[in-house]
Amino acid sequence: MRLGGTGEMRLSGTGDGRPGGQGAGTWASGPPTARHPGRRHGARLLTRFLAVLLMVAGGIAAGPAAPAAAAALPSACSGSPDRVYPFATGELRIYKNHRYACAVTHAKRPGLRRTMSVSLQPRGGRAVMERGRFTRRAGPVSVHALHRCVRATGKVSGTGRSTGWILC
Fold first, then answer.
1. Are strands 128-134 and 114-122 parallel, antiparallel or unpaired?
2. Nearest one of 70, 120, 69, 73 to 95, comparing CA atoms
3. What's the whole-number mean pLDDT along residues 15-21?
4. CA-CA distance, 74 to 12, in Å (whole number)?
5. What is the dihedral of CA 37, 38, 41, 47, to 10 degrees?
6. 3-state helix, strand, coil in the chain (%, to 5)
7. Which of 97, 88, 91, 101 is nearest to 140 (CA)?
């Protein structure tokens, strides 16, 4: 084994310690990825581009059925949906499982980046809040709510809704 002038590895011999002989080969060019590093990257880029193209084409073909499919998607919160509080620009969704309560604020018309917030507070505890500029939803936020009431607030573009003490 020896190194060539450019740093690639050159093998000669049979591999059993005897130089030359039948089956002796040379690996003068190095592995294909070392010789042409851009080829694999280009293939990966092409694969990603085609995947995105197929997703976009599938979304266009889905057409009006897309909102119904989006409603059937699993939620960001675990547990069963407990309450939904609609308001002018979106809705506040509350979920509850055995130990935790979870809240998410969804925009009525997703797509535009706008100010959204969601907060959830257990009785006797501190509120957990997520606030920022989002396109689709704020949250999920969850609190430990075993044998405790909670209250939630959700806002989209300054308009929102608050609950009183619920899930008692």
1. antiparallel
2. 120
3. 50
4. 59
5. -130
6. 25, 40, 40
7. 101
Structural contact between residues 92 and 153, judged by C-beta atoms closer than 8 angstroms = yes
Whole-prediction pTM: 0.56
The token duo for 27 is 């690996």
Q: Which long-range contacts (CB under 8 A, 24 or more apart) does 43-48 make?
A: none
The number of residues in the chain equals 168
CA–CA gap between residue 91 and residue 87 (Å, rounded): 6
The tokens for 59 are: 């979304």
8 Å CB contact between 65 and 143: no
Tokens of 159: 């308009």
Q: How far apart are the first and last CA of the chain?
A: 76
Report helix, strand or coil for 11: coil
Return the H-helix or E-strand segment holding 55.
helix 37-62
In this prediction, residue 79 has a pLDDT band, given cuts at 50, 70 and 90, of confident
Phi, psi dihedral angles at 155 (to 5 degrees):
-140, 145
| pLDDT attached to residue 153 | 97
Name the residue type at position 50.
L
Which residues on neighbouring strands pair with residue 90, listed in sequence order?
A: 87, 107
Structure tokens at 131: 């606030």
